[in-house]
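User: Please run a holo structure prediction.
Assistant: Happy to. Please share the sequence and the ligand.
User: Here you go; the ligand is copper (II) ion.
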Amino acid sequence: MQKTWNIPTISCNHCLMSIRRELKFVDGVEYVDGDVQSKTVVVAYTNEAALDRARAALAEAGYAPVN
Ligand SMILES: [Cu+2]
């Protein structure tokens, strides 16, 4: 499954690096890609619980998705 998140607090490539680092350790997240211009992150995940964990990890890091 795949989800595209809008994350308004993304402002530069360091933000994307931080996001990748956060999501690397979330069980069930298989793939992360992001784009600074559109402030979006694409996440591939194995189940809804994994997506919830990923969302929580990002929110805690200051990158809460708004969708
Ligand atoms: Cu940044």
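Residues 11-12, 14-15 surround copper (II) ion (CB under 6 Å).
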